[in-house]
Predict the 3D structure of the following.
Amino acid sequence: MVFKSSHADLAIPEVDIWTLLFERHEKEWKDDKELFIDGETGSAYNFTQLKSTALNFGKGLKSQWNWKKGDVLGIFSPNSIDYAPVVFGTLWAGGVCSTANPTYTVKELAFQMKDSRVKGIATQLAMLPTALKAAQQIGIPEDRIILIGHDRDPSGKHQHFTQLKSTSLLSLSYQTRVDPKKDLAFLVYSSGTTGLPKGVMLSHTNIVANVLQFSSAEKRSGLHCMGGQDGKGDKQLAVLPFYHVYGLTCILHATVWDGYQAIALPKFELEKACKLIQDYQVTFAYVPPPIILGFAKHPIVDKYDLSSLKWLNSGAAPLTKELVDAVWERLTIPTKQGYGLSETAPVTHMQSVLEWAKFKGSVGPLMANMEAKVVDLDGKELSVGEDGEIWVRGPNVFQGYLNRPELAKDTFSECGFFKTGDIGHSDAKGNFYITDRLKELIKYKGFQVAPAELEGILLGHSEIADACVIPAFDRERSEEVPRAYLVMKEGVPRTDEKAKELIDWVASKVAPHKQLRGGIRFIDEVPKNPSGKILRRVLKEQAKKEDRV
Ligand code: 4UU
């Protein structure tokens, strides 16, 4: 059967993101309060400042960099309130943003920037050396590396994004027109169901649709914008990284569309987060499960008054019922859940605060304009209560993987459903439950780890004959961690010291979230089917037994 959203379809306007956020909505603001506030310095952008800063940047791109429709800007930065004008200015100028994890190594960054063919990179001073090395490797001129954030370049070589100036040429002062359905707004990177990270092509319409679908779903959770009746409005903690699709749509875009206030933190530190919640009277936060764990269990939380919080929303990785209960016992606030993927811009399912207690463990019902199927391995449709792969269809589903048209036939069904690679079911009321993952992907703290990438690195080691990486489970922290099963070349000792040496060796080559936190196990042979495909399931089952999952 096809599961359809129980919510009435929303009209998704055929407009680009800039027009939706900055033109359609402007007149509705009752005031001009701050939208993005820097949690560390208190500096902020209100709507008017955000719009003018973004416009200046967009005009600067056109004037100084001869920016054309479809040109891509790499953004390599932790959360900063400047992320907003840089993204929206780039979109105004017809550009596309390729957002990268700020903890990437030179190699990881160079891969993404080259793959998405960026024309420049916006970064922060602390990451400038990495950005410069990556830029040099892929032939991006030094003056195309610009800074965002508070720090300026002491050498004066790299402009701050606010220094890009427009000329007075009238032709450059207009927004670059795009076709919202076809033209891209973002390239976010995901490994999808298999292989190395790939550029997920998100069009303007994908994001516009998801902002509206998501905003409409969240209204059921009692949020109101700052023009709300009591004049106070809701405030959120913006700790999810903006480079990841969850933070990108649900915070960066939704803040502007719904007029919430977002208090931005460059990285999650529990005590800082608690202090900001207390000081700013934050009312809600989108977070991944490890942060929920912090709120539920960490002693530091007791030092702060978090009574302004109305609820937390968890997503990006599985959440246990026990954690939801633990948050309720400690803070008396609901933890609801959402589900989504980079490929769906991202949210497809969202629980409302009215449903959290009745359907704990559920990721909620389908959002408006969404349909889903649950299918078995042969693609046969299953019905209520039966576990299978979840397929989804809707206006937020992406345009395919960049430069990889050959993947379309495995990614989409014949009738245009996107195959998520996640396993789950729906109950009779339309609440979905994610129970397992069919695809290779590992989620560490909500961040993607592609086993194929780690296997590639491991196979480059002179002592390793074969490798398979799978998700293990860290029971104490309640999260997935990458574990490697290795076949060593003859004569190499299979000792704890060797394992530690290899773990450190991998750590020196990858961003911190990809480290082999699940350890290394030495085996005689990687299980494979007759055609040589790794049978990850076998090792996953072995890991489950060992980790008592
Ligand atoms: C079990 O992680 C994301 C998007 C997350 C998101 C979550 C809730 C966005 C909005 C929201 O409200 O994207 P990716 O591409 O990094 O990873 C996608 C994968 C899914 O395929 C699934 O395996 O992350 C996993 N995942 C979840 N797993 C995402 N949400 C959940 C969830 N429970 N709630």
The chain has 14 helices and 24 strands. The first helix runs from residue 17 to 23. The mean pLDDT is 95.
